[in-house]
Amino acid sequence: MRRRARTGAEPDSEAREVEISWAVLASLFQFRIATAEQLRQLHAPDGSIEKMRGRLRRLRDEGLVVELVLPQSGRAKGWFLSEHGARIAAAFPELAEVPAPRLPGDATAFKYTLWHQLAVVRTHLAFLADARARGDGYGPFDFIPEVTHRFAEGRDGSVRPDGLLYYGVREPDGTIARLRAFVEVDRGTMGAERLASKLHTYARYWSTKTLPAGMRSGTIEAEQGGRVPLWQRRYVRFPRLLFVLTGTGQVGFDNRVDELQVHAEDRHVAKMLTAVPAAAAGLEALQQYGPTGAAWYPLADRQAEPLGFHELTAAGRHN
Questions:
Q1: What is the pTM of this model?
Q2: CB-based contacts of 36, cutoff 8 Å, min separation 6
Q3: Could you state, in chain order, the average pLDDT of each consecutive group of 10 residues for the chain (319 residues)?
């Protein structure tokens, strides 16, 4: 019997399935864990949740991903990479600069430490949904989790934001304004003062300077201000600071924003904020109004009205 020729749509469909499966593995490498619904929103927003669950089951059967029933979630499942899946994803050239995920050594213990990672994915999805609606330049892989920035020796000599965000705002004239941001996600499990103290660590990173390559200390050039900010090795402009808060209710949110604004008045932090926009927003507000909605409370100005994150300015000057 002669085999029926395939239509042109079928190879395209197969290729699309391979592309989505690749994207699922890459996202789990980046974010450590995600639900099927989160992965659907990331990579197949027009598809059904059942189709995404089917993809995940196939990847599980191939030994690439593992499922975990989330506690107190009505039997909802989170998905993360197996050791085999992590080795495969680590070879993706697109993930060369992404830190390898910390795989759970104990799945039972992992159940009670994964909510933070899921909140980080929720934050990313809020930016992604807003960008898709606006036509902005922001995709599923434009949020890089847990990139360490070391500026000094010792335990307190580095910052590791929950995410490093790359966002392109489409301007009215069609040009793209490229914004970078450090994102800190807090579920209310950290004391308000401890959360706000992160501003001081960022201020230390912002103010740390080194001599350019080839310039020796003690020279006239060095004495005349030859040192340059360490962060300029990575960025043209220091990324803005975005604190995303959830899990505390309105009173807890207000208290945390107040604490951040108090610490923003510290001399060293205030100096940084003359050049770096910084603000806090509730995760639920971001999901409802989008990050470009008026959800962000500037840290350097207690009297300022909430703004979209792309509208934030550094204290005392237009940015």
A1: 0.88
A2: 49, 52, 53, 56, 77, 79
A3: 36 80 95 95 95 96 92 80 93 85 70 85 98 95 91 86 94 89 93 92 93 50 62 94 95 94 96 97 96 96 93 70
